Amino acid sequence: MPNCLIDNFEKNVFNDKVMKERLSNDVYQKLKKTIENREKLDLSIADEVAAAMKDWAMEKGATHFTHWFQPMTGLTAEKHDAFMSLDKNNKMILEFSGKELIQGETDGSSFPSGGLRQTFEARGYTAWDCTSPVFLKESTAGVTLCIPTIFCSYTGEALDKKTPLLRSISAINKETVRALNEIFKENCKSITVSVGPEQEYFLVDRDKFLKREDLMFTGRTLFGAKAPKGQEVEAHYFGTIKENVLEFMKEVNIELWKLGVYAKTQHNEAAPAQFEIAPIYAPVNVATDHNQLIMETLRRVARHHNMECLLHEKPFKGVNGSGKHNNWSLITDSGKNLFSPGKAPHENMEFLFFLTAVIKAVDENALLLRHAASGPGNDFRLGAHEAPPAILSIYLGDQIGDIVNQIINSGQATTSKKGDVLNTGVDTIPTFNKDATDRNRTSPFAFTGNKFEFRMVGSSISIACTNIMLNGVVADAIREMTDQVLINKKDVREVIKETLTAHQKIIFNGNNYTEEWKKEAKKRGLPNAASFAESIKALVDPHTIEVMARNNIYQKSELESRAEIYYDNYAKTINIEANTMIEMASKQYIPAVIKYMNNLAKTINNMKEASKEAITSNLEKTLNDTSVLLLEAKDALDALKEKVSIAETKPDGMKKAMYYRKEVFTIMGNLRYPIDKLELIVDSNIWPVPSYGELMF
Ligand code: ADP
Ligand code: MG
Question: Is the pTM value of this prediction over 0.90?
Answer without folding.
Answer: yes
